[in-house]
Amino acid sequence: MDIPHLARKQSSQLLSTSPNLLSVDGQKMSASAAQLPGSAVSSSASSTGSLAHSTGSSASSAVSASVAALPVTCEEEGDVSCTSKVSRSASGSSDAGAQHASTKRRTIFTHGRPPWYNVDGQLKEAFVIGIAGGSASGKTTVAQMIIKELGVPWVVLLSMDSFYKALTPAEIERAHQCEYNFDHPNAFDVDLLVTTLKKLKEGKNVDIPVYDFNTHSRLPNTHTMYGANVIVFEGILAFCRKDLRDLMDMKVFVDTDSDIRLARRLKRDILERGRDLAGVIKQYNKFVKPAMDEFIAPSMNHADVVVPRGSDNHVAINLIIDHVRMQLNERGFLFREKIATARKDGPMPDTLHVLPRGSQVRAMHTIIRNRDTPRDEFIFYSQRLMRLLVEYALSFLPFQETIVTTPSNALFQGQRFNGTLIGVSIVRAGVTMEGSLRDVCKDIRLGKILIQTDEETGEPQLHYCKLPKRLAGAHILLVDATIATGAAAMMAIRVLLDHDIPEENIMFLSLIAAPSGIHNLAYAFPKVKIITTEVDREVNEQFHIIPGIGNFGDRYFGTST
Questions:
Q1: Would you say 305 and 131 are in contact if contact means Cβ atoms under 8 Å apart?
Q2: Where is the domain boundary, 275, 300, 331?
């Protein structure tokens, strides 16, 4: 076959057509029936006519997600509010319905993330789908189809293109001359990729590097990605190492005809990366095709499913989706319902500390619990209780002995806290305690976590996260007005742990707590200190604290649910 002649012919056709459509006429393709994990066989279907494909990816980390929930609303003035949108990543692949937006200081989830841990607070491993295939075979399109059709609460797409190694000036010059081999395993930072995928699978947040193919360099900024229920990982050499394959629960190989892959690559590199035809052909003959024969095609043997014709093979894709749904159903459970009925009885844990009950504290509780208390009095006495609570909590910090000299030149042996304090409020009721944190703790830095209840399932969902920088070694005062079942508290603590904050450095402060929530938190996180002003009797079937205080946020802000 005369590749340059074929390339010129197809390139001229591509440049005159829509950039989102590739038509291959008069070619009949068939495949045998697909089976799920067990044997690497193909999915059946035959078609004649035109095939629609999206262009392949070129760089950066593609963070994609699916599904529905509420758009973000933020309590703090100046915060960003965003909703789902279709964006274009640096790789040129379309990110449909991206579920979170990152800024330098905060992450906003446009769809709530459900619990990524079990009722004991331990991380649930995500279901990882690995997708491999030749350059421009349609891996990204298949990945996005899987994400779209799954319809599960939280899915992310991780591209291997993000993990190209940073090039030296000499290598960058070779890359501009199409003399650098981007299709060899040595071109990728596989060690970093394995570490990143492992952390994602464990539900932790990671920073994804951004690679720019136009300059052939890593950009200084990174994308923050959080763990998910399902992780779709795609790349030409996704199966190149055993430790990488071992992280995958399902391995899919997209097998597309070489002529189609070449045509797509021509369109992508010429239209999107600004390269000339001769350079693309040179790189294809020298690096791309040999790499396909030597590294990529043999990796098909590791696949659980082979998908001929990529995104046009709906039979194979539907089988993959059905299998993933079945696996997710086996792993799932009703989180809040379980923790509401778990561990109700028994002695209170040693990590619980209740503000000493004097007549003053009892009197303030009487006022704020009274349904007839005017709003201004409710706010005033709630704030008084909050200050007492914060002052009491500070006594559990690790103070060190120190000696100072008094104005009379005498020595005084005292104590000093030399650590760093950070306050994190659970929006929205927890925001009411920020004033007390500022009044009592000089120069304290504050963060926010927004957790809301899904209206259909009743499960907590993470919508917003903004944490200060330099968290290492800091002591965290996590605040919320109440602890009922502990569902929101567990999610907030899990977020902090995923940011590598030691469990023993976290104190959870609340005005009122229910026994079931206290037991759940103490069992899941035995080193977290729980500090409150009052322990109530129980949580009812609607997950309300009895006798309780009503909806604290509504009473404080003067709103109604």
A1: no
A2: 331
Same domain for 457 and 324: no
For the four alpha carbons of 320, 205, 337 and 526, in that order, the dihedral sign comes to positive
Q: What is the pLDDT of residue 225?
A: 82
The amino acid at 255 = D
CB 510 within 8 A of CB 429: no
Using alpha carbons, select from 424, 515, 498 the residue that is nearest to residue 466.
424
Six-digit token string for 67: 């599904």
User: pLDDT tens digits, residue range 459-517?
Assistant: 788 888 899 988 888 999 999 999 998 888 999 998 898 888 999 999 999 999 999 89
Q: Considering its fold, how many domains does the chain have in total?
A: 2
Q: Are residues 361 and 482 in the same domain?
A: yes
Among residues 311, 331, 351, the one where a domain terminates is: 331
How does pLDDT run across 430-470, given as a tens digit for each residue?
999 999 999 999 999 999 999 987 776 667 888 888 999 88
What are the structure tokens assigned to 260, written together?
């189609």
Residue type, position 109, single letter: F
Spatial neighbors of 366 by CB under 8 A, at least 6 apart, are none
Q: What is the pLDDT of residue 415?
A: 96
Q: Hey, which bits of 316-459 come out as E strands? A: 352-354, 400-405, 411-416, 421-427, 445-453
Tokens of 410: 């005498």
The Cα 260–Cα 141 span in angstroms is 14
Please write the tens of the pLDDT for every residue from 109-140: 445 666 666 666 666 678 899 999 998 888 98
- H or E segment at 291? helix 289-291
Peptide bond into 526 cis (omega under 30): no
Cβ-based neighbour number of residue 358 at 10 Å: 9
Q: Is residue 16 part of a domain?
A: no
